[in-house]
Amino acid sequence: MRIEQEIRLDFKDVLIRPKRSTLQTRADVDLTREYTFKHSQFSWKGMPIIASNMDHTGTFAMAESLAKHKLLTAIDKFADLKEWKQFHAKHPKLHKYCFATTGIKPEDAAFLDKILKAVPTPFICIDVANGYTQRFVDCIRTLREKYPTKTLIAGNVVTAEMAEELVLAGADIIKVGIGPGSVCTTRLKTGVGYPQLSAIIECADAVHGLGGHLCADGGCVSPGDVAKAFSAGADFVMLGGMFAGHEECSGEKIQEDGKWFMRFYGMSSSEAMYKHHGRMNAYRASEGRSVNVPYRGKVENTVLDILGGLRSTCTYVGAQRLKELSKRTTFLRVTQQLNEVFAALQVNEVVNDN
Ligand code: 5GP
Fold this sequence. Notes:
Layout: E1 14-16, E2 33-36, E3 43-46, E4 49-51, H1 60-67, E5 72-75, H2 81-90, E6 98-102, H3 106-118, E7 123-127, H4 134-146, E8 151-157, H5 160-169, E9 173-176, H6 186-190, H7 196-209, E10 213-217, H8 223-231, E11 236-239, E12 253-256, E13 259-265, H9 270-277, E14 290-294, H10 299-317, E15 331-333
Parallel strand pairs: 4-5, 4-11, 5-6, 6-7, 7-8, 8-9, 9-10, 10-11
Antiparallel strand pairs: 1-15, 2-3, 12-13, 13-14
Helix pairs in contact: 5-7, 8-10
Bound molecules: guanosine-5'-monophosphate.
Residues 52, 54, 129, 156, 177, 181-184, 186, 217-220, 238-242, 266-269, 287-288 line the site of guanosine-5'-monophosphate.
């Protein structure tokens, strides 16, 4: 056993230092990014934010709404072929904003092949809770050989050496995050994890050194956290909880004390296990929660709130483009984030006031 003494940081441990800027207004800030991916050589331009491939958020309705603002959606892996075909028939151009999600079982590969034959989406998301297994690396290698022009996002990992290994195996984008998620209980059940801001910083350095890209996945609870993830070096940010509870999400809508809520659960929760596999294997523990989140209407308001926040962050540090944000960032370690004295008294929230 050994102990690493260096302190690792989460979003809540830092703030971004403001810098002198010549920008006139936040409307001048360009948030679109353009990437050419290492292995696929595919060039993509858009807003680098992805709705998570969870049952609740990785829906075709979400893709339809997010694509209007050029954001991406990782469609959950349980969406069936008929749904993919119907979506493609209705919106023949939107597949370029969608990831097809797959696991590492042989039947996952066969199903993925059917989807890709029916819908030419350029992105594949290979998603496992633990990206540290040889089986996962082998799966990336196989998919890389089979689909040389598809852009592969793979994870999750949190350390430089494994992020590098996944890039070398054929992944274009490395998904980073173990344990930070809003409905994740991995840290509680296993004691394993890595503070998310430090994980992004460490992996970004490694992945960029090899010409790969990085997606920060999990732990963002506010537009400020999304800005911190990009500032730390993420090329994409994936969101679950922040996109939960919207009209575009799937799942039960519940009324309690006159207020509306929506069911949201972790993909390793016992609820997800029973839903998709009809059982919970005795050898594994649930590593996810089930919660009822307040219903929040259309996702567009949330999208505009996030993009407005990001533009404002860029203005504070003098970054004319999102691309410049991490270069212009100095993080300050802090002991307090917010003044919460009236937080419980808040009556309403004004969004899109810019
Ligand atoms: P959030 O944005 O809600 O904080 O985090 C979303 C991410 O949490 C997902 O993209 C996924 O990586 C992770 N996640 C989703 N469900 C579970 C779960 O049941 N257990 C764990 N450990 N992580 C989960």
